[in-house]
Amino acid sequence: MITKFIRLYSNRFVSRWLVLVIDLAIVLFSFQVSLIIRHNFDLTLIDAREMFEQSVVVFVCFALGFLSFHSYSGVVRHTNVADAFRILKATTLASAVLFLLNLAVVRYAPQAQSLLAVPLSVLLIQYVFSNFMLVVSRFIFKAVYHTLFDKGRQKVNVIIYGAGASGMTTKSTFSVDKDTYYHVVAFIDDNPTKQNKVIQGVKVYSASILESEFIEKKEVREVILSIHNISNQRKREIVDLCLLHNIKVKSVPPIEKWINGELTSHQLKPVRIEDLLQRDEIRLDKDNVRQEIYEKVVLVTGAAGSIGSEIARQLLHYRPAQLILVDQGETPMYELEQELRKVQPALYSSVRMVVADIRNDRRMRHVFKKYRPNYVFHAAAYKHVPLMEENCYEAVMVNVFGTQNIADLSLEFGVQKFVMVSTDKAVNPTNVMGSTKRIAEIYTQSLNNTIGSSTKFVTTRFGNVLGSNGSVIPLFRRQIETGGPITVTHPDITRYFMTIPEACQLVLEAGVMGAGGEIFIFDMGESVKILDVAKKMIKLSGLTLGKDIQISFTGLRPGEKLFEELLATTENTVPTHHPKIMIAKVRSYDYDQISQQLVHLKQVLNLGDEHRIVTKLKELVPEFVSNNSKFEEIDKTRFKTNNEAY
Fold it and tell me: CATH code at 198?
């Protein structure tokens, strides 16, 4: 009956005025008990009239104290240390007033001593006893409420990783959660000084308990990561331990993302694979970037794509005079516009959204003539390997001739710096997409050596980025949501990953430091086995491989490599001032020679014969050898001819 009543009215709060009345009643009760204690429990020594008169004075003084500090306004069932501190301040003020009143009456109005002068010994006893009663009564009510309310709720035993301020806040949040009863059985903290101590009634352990019988004994179901100064390496270790024992892992968002500064259990999110693959924060020379970008006109092509949009977001923080965003995709451009309006309303006035095709010389010439950009970040490209293998005409038109158009216009209109976003697939390419990006690199590099050129042409290369359009992580996530199977091309295939913000930060840094003609490559870290990524995503989703979902091997796609080449080696790179950025050692090309070759490529392109197009690409990029593709026949003929000639 009582439990049903509490559940029925669980969302209602007791009137604060009722709380004030109860508090004053407790004060009067404690005052009377203090008088009795003061007179050694001999009631005959207490004058009833004096006690009544003094009770009125005590009542008024404590009422003023409570009203001054609003100690009655908190929600009793959510009582915490802050509420107890407010009570202490209120009772201290009231007792101080009574003490001063006592001194004043004794000295200046002894005739009113029986009415106004409460004995100092009574004041002291009453101060201690009333504080005890006021605070303890609240915590007793809170404990009773939650004991009754918790009955019948789903009980989930959890461990909180992090015994700092965030961890304690997380535990406090769980104590008032109405949907799922999170019962904290332990804290984990890597700080030895906190281990074996008790915080909020819960013991702090080291991470070794994740490998002990503690997990089974306490029936731990989840671990909550509530720490924000943890390295990504340590986070991976903790998550791997949890997944090994089939424990779900959730994380607490950063404090700045808490709703109205408060944490709720609904804000806890399962740890995602992106959180485990990302590396520790990269330190950049932001002042150098800001100095270059501030009050400059900056143009970004492919601005609605994964990389282009993040470059735009980051550039906006450096307050360019104008930020010209160019893309041919109407819908993604609209979505980007709405996002920037909402997230950066104060800075959005400098943004210009331009829907245009970089291949259209007349249209892009108008854009350059109108805005006269100082910087160009060229991120527009077709990038999906298998799709471009089937549509080589479009790959060449956008990646080669689109780049040529933007680069030529940059040169013509005196752009200070042209920064091209390339890919590691341009290194010893095995597909059409990679070869077109390599040709774009060659052409922009050659422009840097043209006579009278004031434009510095810089190229940046990096590998896969987490969460980009069409990448493997979103694909796996969609497949898991639909029940599978997860499709992996080959059990041994590996890839290098970095986050989109990290990649774009490095693009800005490299673009600013470039003196012209360099191809900057980024340290991609360690390669990751895609099969392991799939397995880990299954576990993070709370599913069991082979029972809830399957993995299917589909074979390498056209143009796909089994292992990507690691560019960050001392054999083919030169270091820069930034440890994550290197300069690739590549041969330089003559502008007139490559320009003539592109004229021939366009002539072949106009014929529409894809085999002749790819043959020409292989002439321009001799290291381009097709892999798992219909164009492998071209290589057989090519190499056979070369061998016969030899």
Answer: 3.40.50.720
